[in-house]
Amino acid sequence: MSKIVVIGAGPAGMMAAITASENNEVILIEGNDRLGKKLFITGKGRCNVTNSKDISEFFNYIPGNPYFLYSSLYTFTNEDTINFFEDEGIKLKVERGGRVFPNSDKSSDIIKGLSKAITKCNIKIMLNSKVTRIIKNCNKITGVEINNSNIIEGDHFIICTGGASYPLTGSRGEGQRFAKELGHKIKELKPSLVPIEIKDEIVKDLMGLSLRNIELAIYENNKKVFKDFGEMLFTHFGISGPLVLSGSRFIKNNKNYEVIIDLKPALDIKALDLRIQKDFKKYINKDFKNSLDDLLPKKILPIIIKLSKINENKKVNEITKEERRNLVHLIKNFKLTVKGLRPLEEAIVTAGGVDTKEIDPSTMRSKIIDNLSFAGEVIDVDAFTGGYNVQIALSTGYVAGSSI
Ligand SMILES: Cc1cc2nc3c(=O)[nH]c(=O)nc-3n(C[C@H](O)[C@H](O)[C@H](O)COP(=O)(O)OP(=O)(O)OC[C@H]3O[C@@H](n4cnc5c(N)ncnc54)[C@H](O)[C@@H]3O)c2cc1C
Fold it and tell me: Nearest CA to 62 among 381, 397, 394, 391?
């Protein structure tokens, strides 16, 4: 029986410990005082644990090294995730976009499911135990140093220390540092799924406004790099919300980017013009500033009115066809200039990490160090929102643990 040391008790580490324990003695080492601290805050405290789409569709939602994940996602699929939690007594439900959540809407239930399986597997858990150093002799790891003092020895080591975002959850990029010291290449750590800062002062007036059913496109030097439909939110520094987080993946800080929002994507130019004419008829004796209440959210009206360059006190029956055409264009092309991304610490996911070229995708074993494996966000993989990131952690953890 070999002694396996798993570092980090997020979804990847917990799953790796569970599968490794089938034929081995397992120690799960966690720096925090509890398991799954980041998992607890996922999905706004509800944990979007996976997605119900066919597993073959997952790769469309993984911009960061999808091919590397083929083997692990097909070995432990989203259906396996659902069965795993249901076997542990955690009922799940499917919501819009195939997002899977616990029935209870409590992420703690997902942690409970994993903890129950860990207890059954006789895994030794060491909490409040931060790995501070990895000890290597020739091309083999012999042990890990805990809290700068005692050494835990082992036969095989699995690094599951996560990315470097939300550092208060314990994921601080330490696994990437260890991997680098062990000779692995690290792809630069960058924020992925992060709010976007906007240059235009108008965002301050829009703070708190949440828009649903809009289309958002991102342009890099006038070339479209992202377009999708959904929800977004204005904040004191710029924009956030699911659509914005996904779009942020396509922004590199040093280029010129614009965000163009179609506030009425369900209506084409002609249909929107007809709709505005209908509203103008309804409010025929009103000033322009009081004519768009049925069309757009109240908070954005003063800005649209100002940007339209139509005098706000003009009677609607005096508005020209040309002015109306400009108004339609503005509503379908509400433009914001990107200042940059919020920092890595605020990102939902870290892009970059241990170079996938140096990891065997079917076992998660290092191609450089004989008795080392990786799983989860510590690797250079990242996905959009929708439950894909936790599924990646579980699938790679499953493969890492079962391939020793
Ligand atoms: C606010 C927020 C919401 C999110 N919502 C979702 C969602 O709903 N659905 C989804 O799919 N994804 C979501 N994610 C992303 C998802 O949480 C991560 O991709 C996932 O947790 C990665 O799992 P992991 O096991 O690789 O790493 P982590 O969950 O980060 O776990 C790593 C663990 O390793 C421990 N550790 C680190 N260094 C050491 C060390 N030196 N010694 C000992 N222990 C160490 C850490 O304390 C941590 O517990 C969200 C992320 C955030 C920040």
Answer: 381
